[in-house]
Amino acid sequence: MICKAFRSAFVFVVALLALSSVTVGAEEPVGILKIEITGLKDSTGNVHIGVYDSEETWLGDETVATRVVNIAEALNGEVVETEMQLPLGEYAFTLFYDADGDGEMKTNFIGMPKEPIAMSNNAKAKFGPPKFEDAVFNLGLEPTIQRVIITAL
């Protein structure tokens, strides 16, 4: 009887160990995007970041990641620093300083931002918004650092 109980417990433990080592699938490798923002005139409020992975979604509502950064908490000297983990690939981002604290970027009647902005690669507008190809960068296994200067238009 004791032998039978021992055998049952042994089988249970072996089965438990086997199940705990089963992996459902390999996790997708991720890269680290470090964003360093300079040019802010104020050390209060938030910076909003939107990350895009295609020209089709660039500057639209469909982002692959977003982040709201509290400036006071992320300030290192005169630089606001934040990190994001994303699957490896090509990305571009835009960010804006939420000057009035409403969580939305204000624009004028022709759609130009009224609040300070920056784009990855410091892409600039030329007769319209910056192009995705000017802002795109590759995120690999090594951390990618994007240093951007936020400016008012």
Helix content: 10-25%
How are helices and strands ordered from N to C?
A: HEEEHEEEEHEE
Q: How much of the residues is beta strand, in percent?
A: 35-45%
Structural class: alpha+beta
* Poorly predicted spans: 1-24
Spatial separation of the terminal alpha carbons: 84 Å
Strand tally, please? 9
Shape: globular
Please describe the biggest sheet, giving its number of strands, its sense, and whether it closes into a barrel. Answer: 5 strands, antiparallel
C-alpha Rg (nearest Å): 23 Å
* Average pLDDT level: 86
- Tally of individual helices: 3
List the helices and strands and how they pair.
Elements (H helix, E strand, L loop, with lengths): L1 H19 L9 E9 L7 E7 L12 E6 H4 E2 L2 E9 L1 E9 L19 E3 L12 H4 L1 E3 L4 E6 L4
What does this structure look like?
The protein is of the alpha+beta class and 153 residues long. Helices cover 18% and strands 35% of the residues. It is built from three helices and nine strands. Strands 2, 3, 6, 7 and 8 form a five-stranded antiparallel β-sheet that branches. A four-stranded mixed β-sheet has the order 4-5-1-9. Mean pLDDT is 86; it is low at 1-24.
